[in-house]
């Protein structure tokens, strides 16, 4: 009996110790990994970003403050190659990405440590599988088409700025753009457009800009719709007919005189 009691006490003690210390060890390991990511991110930031955004992300005359922009803004700007910027200008264009995704995640962790902001979305948030593309089209036309065109082909703004073409942009970056509002774009947090709304918009853009929607017949005039395309046909088509008519009339009159 004594041996059984001792065994039970030992098992109870082992279970208690595991319960007490295992979660703490896991949390400590996660904290350590996060601290290392922040530390490495700060090194990358100091070399590539601090000259414009300040040593602590406070901003300078050459770049805005990054305090509170969140990890999602870093993932979008650096992940699309817009940052680091090559030169000052009205707008930073999309270009070749200079950092690996691991390095981008480290910089995002550092910027997130400076102030609360939107986190990098998970795949489940921006994956359009099962989303309502028709609803997304309605939301896009009401909130985005004024700048990006009805099918996301982009358009000119004022003072050298522009709304970029959304063709070829990853689902994650489209979602992050809506979440953070990069450059001239307004932000659409979940209180304005819900997570499902954003996913519906991503689904719509996938539908209208997918490879199966390419126009083998030639340019599609930005996808502006039948009014613009009809006006194009009216002006140039009718103009061509008038030119041919004038040419034929002139040739006929010349033949009669001769």
From TrEMBL:
InterPro entries: bc1_cytC-su, Cyt_c-like_dom, Cyt_c-like_dom_sf, Cytochrome_c_Oxidase_Subunit. Keywords: Cell membrane, Electron transport, Heme, Iron, Membrane, Metal-binding, Repeat, Respiratory chain, Signal, Translocase, Transmembrane, Transmembrane helix, Transport. Residues 1-22 form the signal peptide. Residues 36-115, 131-209 form the Cytochrome c domain. Its EC number is 7.1.1.8. The keyword Cell membrane applies. The cytochrome bc1 complex is composed of a cytochrome b (QcrB), the Rieske iron-sulfur protein (QcrA) and a diheme cytochrome c (QcrC) subunit. It is an enzyme of class 7 (translocase). The lineage of its organism: Bacteria, Bacillati, Actinomycetota, Actinomycetes, Kitasatosporales. This is Cytochrome bc1 complex cytochrome c subunit. PROSITE patterns: CYTC (PS51007). It comes from the Bacteria. It is a multi-pass membrane protein. It is found in: Cell membrane. The chain crosses the membrane at residues 231-250. It catalyses: a quinol + 2 Fe(III)-[cytochrome c](out) = a quinone + 2 Fe(II)-[cytochrome c](out) + 2 H(+)(out).
């Amino acid at each position: 009996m004594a041996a059984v009691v001792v065994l039970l006490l030992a098992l109870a003690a082992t279970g208690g110790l595991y319960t007490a210390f295992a979660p703490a060890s896991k949390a400590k390991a996660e904290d350590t990994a996060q601290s290392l990511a922040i530390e490495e991110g700060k090194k990358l930031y100091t070399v590539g970003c601090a000259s414009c955004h300040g040593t602590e992300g406070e901003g300078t005359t050459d770049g805005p403050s990054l305090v509170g922009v969140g990890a999602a803004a870093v993932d979008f700007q650096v992940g699309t190659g817009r940052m680091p910027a090559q030169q000052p200008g009205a707008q930073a264009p999309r270009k070749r990405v200079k950092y690996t995704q691991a390095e981008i995640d480290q910089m995002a962790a550092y910027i997130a440590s400076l102030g609360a902001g939107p986190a990098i979305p998970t795949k489940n948030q921006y994956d359009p599988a099962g989303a309502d593309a028709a609803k997304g089209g309605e939301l896009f036309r009401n909130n985005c088409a004024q700048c990006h065109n009805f099918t996301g082909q982009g358009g000119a703004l004022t003072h050298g700025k522009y709304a970029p073409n959304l063709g070829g942009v990853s689902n994650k970056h489209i979602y992050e753009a809506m979440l953070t509002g990069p450059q001239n774009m307004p932000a659409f947090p979940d209180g304005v457009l819900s997570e499902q709304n954003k996913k519906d918009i991503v689904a719509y853009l996938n539908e209208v800009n997918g490879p199966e929607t390419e126009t083998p017949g030639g340019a599609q005039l930005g996808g502006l719709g039948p009014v613009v395309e009809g006006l194009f046909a009216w002006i140039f088509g009718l103009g061509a007919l008038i030119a041919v008519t004038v040419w034929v009339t002139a040739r006929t009159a010349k033949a009669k005189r001769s």
